[in-house]
């Protein structure tokens, strides 16, 4: 029997609508902190503290907003009203963050970061949760999430290369680059939200709205291994990928000898990942989610080993190894979401609506914690080995430890994910 496919125009709208979300998220880590650190009313320490508190706030809002979304659908559906509500929050806070007045201070940065993270999380959770409501077919969900995350990587590339090209072509300084991102968001965010609302159907349900979202969610998390598995996979692979990106410049500069081109080489990782998405999506359609996920993890573990043994100053080999590693980027992104969508189906019981938003809020929270933990873990280890980012050279032992943390550290967490997946497949 042939699966009923999600219409192509719906796949395109669902995927491309993530581009401005990616263009919003990454600059918050790359451009905004140094931009505000230059303000005469702020110091580097103050900016760091504000962003640390904002991220802590962001962790707690995930579950709260997941509960709110599941608890209060509208008469017209479960998604569109929340997506529309997120738009003015995002537009006002984004504009004020990316195009601030010259005297912006600690209160100004704090309040607009506070609102930005609320709007961002509100839109992101609904975007994740919309896909399993468009189709009940696992392979179709993988198709939706696959193309969505391919567009996400494209958005990441756009948000990195756009300001760099602006600087190269017109000599734009940091302020002008940040302002240009704000203008892009003012145009792209309304387009994305309008496309979602006008093109994608919103599921109306006669099922009873759950009264005890947290209690039911915790019950299913304890009772169903299928509900825990995507969280474990997303958390472990999230740590692995974040270790690589967080110390890439250090490893490329000191352990592999490519300091002047490190920021360009990391783009190879994202480009390779973007180009490989169609292959992984096709394989998933043919062989299934668990099988392809296990293949991807085995492949990425092999790529980590290749990275470890690349000789220093071998530019071509290093670029090739980074590209090979990037090919495995996609499956941990979209297949964990596909598995969570299937697990959420288990939470619909006794005529009650499934906990879709709550389930995906758990994933967004675990992924954020994984990213923060990866930075803390990798930078803590760098401190223990005596690494100095301001030094011109490092000792041979520090170079070796840099390689171990950069390539074998992620391998450890990919191995944990593979073991968890193997146990699930064996149980089945």
UniProtKB/TrEMBL annotation:
Residue ranges of the TM segments: 12-32, 44-69, 81-99, 105-125, 146-166, 178-200, 231-256, 262-280, 292-310, 316-335, 369-388, 400-422
What positions belong to coiled-coil segments?
A: none
Asked if the Swiss-Prot or TrEMBL record annotates the protein with the keyword Ribonucleoprotein, the reply is: no
Q: Which classification does the entry list for the species?
A: Bacteria, Pseudomonadati, Pseudomonadota, Gammaproteobacteria, Alteromonadales
What the record says about family reads: Belongs to the sodium:galactoside symporter (TC 2.A.2) family.
Q: Which Pfam families match?
A: MFS_2
Query: Per the record's keyword annotation, is ATP-binding included, yes or no?
Result: no
Q: Which UniProt keywords apply?
A: Membrane, Transmembrane, Transmembrane helix
Q: InterPro entries annotated for this entry? A: MFS_2 (IPR039672), MFS_trans_sf (IPR036259)
**What name appears for this protein in its UniProt entry?**
MFS transporter
């Amino acid at each position: 029997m042939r699966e009923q496919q999600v219409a192509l125009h719906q796949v395109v709208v669902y995927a491309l609508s993530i581009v401005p979300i990616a263009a919003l998220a990454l600059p918050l880590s790359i451009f905004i902190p140094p931009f505000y650190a230059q303000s005469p009313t702020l110091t580097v320490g103050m900016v760091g503290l504000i962003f640390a508190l904002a991220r802590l706030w962001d962790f707690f809002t995930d579950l709260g907003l997941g509960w709110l979304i599941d608890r209060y659908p509208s008469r017209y559906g479960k998604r569109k009203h929340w997506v529309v509500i997120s738009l003015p929050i995002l537009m006002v806070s984004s504009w004020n963050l990316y195009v601030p007045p010259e005297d912006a201070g600690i209160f100004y940065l704090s309040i607009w970061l506070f609102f930005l993270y609320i709007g961002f999380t509100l839109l992101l959770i609904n975007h994740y949760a919309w896909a399993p409501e468009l189709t009940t077919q696992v392979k179709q969900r993988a198709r939706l999430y696959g193309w969505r995350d391919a567009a996400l990587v494209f958005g990441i590339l756009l948000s990195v290369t756009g300001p760099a090209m602006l600087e190269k072509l017109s000599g734009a300084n940091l302020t002008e680059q940040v302002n240009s991102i704000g203008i892009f968001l003012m145009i792209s965010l309304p387009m994305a939200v309008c496309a979602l609302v006008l093109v994608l159907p919103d599921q109306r349900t006669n099922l009873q709205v759950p009264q005890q979202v947290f209690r039911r969610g915790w019950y299913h998390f304890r009772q169903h291994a299928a509900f825990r598995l995507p969280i474990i996979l997303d958390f472990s692979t999230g740590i692995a990928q974040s270790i690589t990106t967080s110390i890439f410049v250090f490893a490329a500069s000191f352990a592999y000898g490519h300091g002047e081109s490190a920021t360009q080489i990391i783009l190879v990782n994202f480009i390779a990942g973007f180009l490989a998405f169609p292959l992984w999506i096709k394989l998933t359609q043919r062989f299934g989610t668990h099988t392809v996920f296990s293949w991807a993890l085995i492949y990425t573990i092999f790529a980590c080993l290749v990275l470890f043994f690349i000789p220093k100053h071998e530019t071509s080999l290093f670029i090739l190894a980074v590209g090979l590693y990037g090919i495995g980027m996609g499956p941990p992104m979209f297949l964990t979401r596909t598995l969570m969508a299937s697990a959420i189906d288990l939470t619909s019981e006794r005529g009650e609506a499934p906990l879709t938003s709550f389930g995906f809020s758990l994933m967004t929270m675990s992924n954020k914690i994984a990213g923060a933990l990866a930075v803390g873990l990798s930078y803590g280890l760098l401190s223990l080995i005596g690494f100095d980012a301001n030094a011109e050279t490092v000792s041979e032992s520090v170079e070796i430890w840099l390689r171990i943390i950069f390539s074998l550290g992620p391998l450890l967490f990919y191995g944990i994910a593979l073991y968890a997946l193997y146990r699930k497949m064996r149980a089945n």
